[in-house]
């Protein structure tokens, strides 16, 4: 049960903190000697963190859904379109390069490089934050942020880190970049969980349902805490702390892979 709880905590904390959940899951497996989570557990961990987003941003989600029924503003309906446009890149990358992505999880060197890339993007986002004041998203923002999210399918590249930083670099205010990043995560996390669930349905063997439940609850609880922490850190302009962290862990991972 401890294994399931640890995997859930790692997934929840690192999914929203800009440090790469996929990279840290692999590192946790190597450092702590944990077995890989398995496809069904991976699906439920993704949906556990998805539940945290749905709760924290429930008012925004309800408002956007109502706008599709003509009860909202034109800007809200445009935002739904932007979310769809931003989701297209990750769908294309996930479907076309699925085997390449899966093989990347076995490369510590690749994970280290991904973490260094995350550190670089976080640094650039911090340096451009003073001119990031625009309160509304535009179509080019959605496409570029969507491309950044697509790059984060590779382990070591933080989805939240690169999407928020790229959003602010495009001129979006920090609050709006964070909001769009996490709303954009909803279809991505749902799709990732669905793919793992389909894989699990085709696999044989019994499942430890109690362990899966514990892992899912831990992913939800730690994800909710991490999400609230990110919102506070972005408001206070302290996102750069994670650039230092990703650089140190990335450099250490590369040294580990080489030596």
Structure description:
The chain is mainly α. It has one domain. Helices cover 78% and strands 0% of the residues. The protein is globular, with a radius of gyration of 18 Å.
Q: Mind sketching the topology for me?
A:
Layout: H1 2-16, H2 21-32, H3 39-56, H4 58-67, H5 74-96, H6 98-104, H7 108-127, H8 139-151, H9 159-169, H10 174-202, H11 209-235, H12 241-258
Helix pairs in contact: 1-2, 1-3, 1-11, 3-10, 3-11, 4-5, 5-8, 5-10, 7-9, 7-12, 8-9, 9-10
Give a quick summary of the entry.
With 259 residues, the chain is an all-alpha fold. The chain has helices spanning 2-16, 21-32, 39-56, 58-67, 74-96, 98-104, 108-127, 139-151, 159-169, 174-202, 209-235, 241-258. The chain has one domain.
Which terms summarize this structure?
259 residues, mainly alpha, 12 helices
Low-confidence stretches: none
Strand content: under 5%
- The ordered string of helix (H) and strand (E) elements is HHHHHHHHHHHH
**Largest sheet report:** none
Helix content: over 70%
If helices are DSSP runs of H or I spanning 4 or more residues, what is the number of helices? 12
- Output the radius of gyration: 18 Å
